Every structure is written in C-alpha cells, then in structure tokens.
C-alpha cells in the first residue's frame, strides 16, 4: 500500500481509479468532479503533480548533458509540453487558480536554477520572475528547431559539408 500526503492509505484500486480520472480529465480537456477526487481543486493539483513529475524527469536528464544548460533546460520544458499538449493546455487554462500559484512559482524557480539563470544571492521573487520569463521564451520557441550558437551557424555556412 502507498501512503498519500493526507495520511490516508491508497491501495492499487485507488491508484488506478485516480490515474483513470486524471487521464479522462486530460483527454476531455476539462476538470470534472469525480468519485476519486473530492473537488476540482484536488484534481487540478493532481494534474499539476503529473506535469511536475514529467518535467522533473526531463530536467534530470538535461542536467546530465554536456551542452549549454539554458538550451538543455529549455529543450526539456518544450519536449515535456510537446509530449503532453492536453495536460499543458488544461493547466494553462487554470493557471490563475490560487491553488496552483505556489506550485507554478516553485516550477519557475526550479527552471531558473537548473538553467543557471539564477544566482545564489537572488531572492525567491527574482528567481520566480526569471523562471517565468524563461517559460515565456520557451513557449515562443519552436520545439523542432534546435538552437545553435552563432559561431556554429557561421561555420556551417562557410563549410557546407560540416
């Protein structure tokens, strides 16, 4: 049995029922009250948790890359969003929900730190702001076009066989 945060235990049947309810919400693109989630807020928080798990896995892989951390973290965010478009759209539609605000801010701080854009002396508010700007940039960057540094692009133009 798995223990959930509210102190109650959750068996496999509960786990599968919650998973199915989350999948249905993502597929339908709307929050609907279900028997396994007490209210829409609880469902929304579970959807944010699902997003966070998927993004965190990609960020951990990005940290292992030898390239530019900004590029690696940006690519991780964009790939996660591209692989989960309905989940991302549902969360974006409810981004103003007060229950999500601290979780979104925590995500922004995590992204700012992982990308190396936040410094040790930055306040949480500064990190949040930097992370929010970073996410806005990722939303406007096409996923399929890898970002290359200007010198690499110039060398590729000068030497087409490269």
Question: In terms of topology, how is this protein built?
Answer:
Layout: E1 2-3, E2 9-10, H1 12-28, H2 40-63, H3 69-83, H4 85-93, H5 101-114, H6 124-140, H7 150-158
Antiparallel strand pairs: 1-2
Helix pairs in contact: 2-3, 2-5, 3-6, 5-6
Please provide a written account of the structure.
This protein has 162 residues and is mainly alpha-helical. Helix content is 65%, strand content 2%. It is built from seven helices and two strands, in the order ββααααααα. The chain has a two-stranded antiparallel sheet with strand order 1-2. 20% of the residues are buried. This is DUF222 domain-containing protein. It comes from Actinophytocola glycyrrhizae.
Biggest beta-sheet profile = 2 strands, antiparallel
Protein structure class: mainly alpha
Would you count the extended β strands for me?
Answer: 2
Task: Give me the number of helical elements.
Answer: 7
Residues in helices, as a percent range: 55-70%
Order of helices and strands: EEHHHHHHH
Strand content bin: under 5%
Give the radius of gyration. 19 Å
Strand order, sheet with most strands: 1-2
Low-pLDDT residue spans: none
Distance linking N and C termini: 56 Å
Average of pLDDT: 88
What overall geometry do the principal axes of the alpha carbons give?
elongated
Which key terms come to mind for this protein?
162 residues, mainly alpha, two-stranded antiparallel ribbon, 7 helices, 65% helix, 2% strand, DUF222 domain-containing protein
Outline of the structure:
The protein contains 7 helices and 2 strands. It is mostly helical and 162 residues long. This is DUF222 domain-containing protein.
């Amino acid at each position: 049995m798995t223990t959930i945060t509210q102190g109650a235990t959750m068996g496999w049947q509960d786990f599968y029922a919650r998973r199915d309810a989350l999948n249905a919400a993502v597929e339908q693109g709307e929050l609907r009250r279900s028997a396994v989630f007490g209210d829409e807020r609880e469902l929304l928080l579970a959807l944010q948790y699902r997003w966070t798990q998927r993004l965190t896995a990609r960020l951990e892989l990005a940290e292992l890359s030898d390239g530019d951390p900004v590029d690696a973290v940006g690519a991780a965010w964009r790939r996660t969003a591209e692989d989960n478009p309905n989940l991302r759209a549902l969360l974006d539609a409810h981004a103003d929900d007060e229950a999500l605000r601290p979780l979104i801010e925590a995500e922004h701080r995590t992204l700012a730190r992982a990308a190396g854009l936040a410094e040790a002396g930055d306040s949480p508010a500064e990190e949040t702001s930097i992370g929010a700007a970073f996410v806005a940039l990722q939303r406007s960057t096409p996923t399929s076009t890898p970002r290359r540094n200007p010198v690499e692009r110039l060398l590729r133009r000068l030497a087409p066989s490269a």
